[in-house]
Amino acid sequence: MMNPFTSQRRQAALGWGLLAVTGAAALCGVALVLQNLRDHGALVLQPQRQRVPDPPAQAAWISPLRRQCHSGDPSLRQRLLTLQQTLPQRLERLRINPSNYAERLGRDAYGNPLDTTPSLVVLHETVYGLGSAINTFTTHHPQDADQVSYHLLIGEQGRVVETLDPSKRAFGAGYSAFRGRWVITNPAMAGSVNNFALHLSLETPLDGEDSEPGHSGYSTSQYDNLAVVLADWMRRYRIPFDAITTHRHVDLGLERADPRSFDWAALQRRLAALGALC
Ligand SMILES: [Zn+2]
Questions:
Q1: Phi-psi category of residue 261: left, alpha or beta, with phi > 0 → left and psi -120 to 50 → alpha
Q2: How many CB atoms lie under 10 A from the CB of residue 85?
Q3: Could you say which of 7, 61, 127, 260 has the lowest number of CB atoms within 10 Å?
Q4: What is d(CA 126, CA 205) in angstroms, rounded to the nearest whole number?
């Protein structure tokens, strides 16, 4: 992933001059690029070692979730299993504006191959209501800075709205990284987790439509549906529970605080009830 010996592109050997290719370089898969024409008239090929910039240091992610193989609450499990069964019928699929998302890239800006399978879940909150978020995502935004999307929204009353197919790249976090990993898709810009992340946002309660550090929290229905969606994603993409994190954590600009007032114990109980933490 962070292979420093990146190959921007491979160039075929030219038919004149001294072409020195070391066996080691070939074995390492190091790309060879044509360098300057030297004074003595020979063209020399040298391995290109264009290092991908690492993200700056960030606090370690210590997941509040923990392994748990027994759920002590059969009624909770039954309730969640019912929600799980009905999710395909309840799931609302929305078509958002193409300016607000992109394809997951198979190569970064330096030509390194990338795994396009999601491997991280980033939790957010909407701050304003579900309708406001949907309106933003369905609006055409020509400016990069205005383009935003998540894959899924969960409303206060339990509405589950898929705003973007998980195979696509949502613009859910800007300058961001997770455990030393980011993807740079444009060398003029800093890296982001978007290429390997799934972004899920909870509708903020009415008393949270501000920039205060907390609010009254999320509803039972939101935690229930969140657990059902996460359990599905974890199974489908083999995402471990400690790769469920927050926008607050991945944000390198230290500007994001969401999701505020999030109850990890509530999520722990539900994921355990679904058998997703074993
Ligand atoms: Zn966020």
A1: left
A2: 11
A3: 61
A4: 9
User: Which residues place a Cβ less than 5 A from the ion ligand 1?
Assistant: 124, 247, 258
Those residues whose C-beta lies under 8 Å from the C-beta of residue 269, and which sit 6 or more positions away, are 71, 73, 76
From ligand 1's centre to the CA of 250, what distance in Å? 10
CA of 36 to the centre of ligand 1 (A): 46
CA of 125 to the centre of ligand 1 (A): 6
Q: 148, 22 in Cβ contact below 8 A?
A: no
What's the 253 CA to ligand 1 centre distance in angstroms?
Answer: 12
Q: Are 44 and 25 in contact (CB under 8 A)?
A: no
Distances (CA, A) of 80 to 138, 151, 161, 237: 31, 21, 18, 20
The two structure tokens encoding residue 156: 């206060």
pLDDT greater than 60 at residue 11: no
Strand-pair partners of 120: 197
The crossing angle, in degrees rounded to 10, of helices 74-90 and 264-273 is: 90
Q: Could you tell me the sign of the dihedral formed by the alpha carbons of 129, 130, 135, 140, in that order? A: positive
User: Which one is predicted more confidently, 16 or 272?
Assistant: 272
Distance 168 CA to ligand 1 centre (A): 18
Q: Is 248 helix (H, G, I), strand (E, B) or coil?
A: helix
More confident residue, 47 or 85: 85
Reported as a single tens digit per residue, the pLDDT across 146-201 is 999 999 999 999 999 999 999 999 999 999 999 999 999 988 888 999 999 999 99
pLDDT band at residue 3, thresholds of 50, 70 and 90?
Answer: very low
Return the pLDDT at 50.
Answer: 63
Show the domains of the chain with their CATH numbers.
1-51 (no CATH), 74-273 (3.40.80.10)
Indicate the helix (H) or strand (E) that contains 110. Answer: none
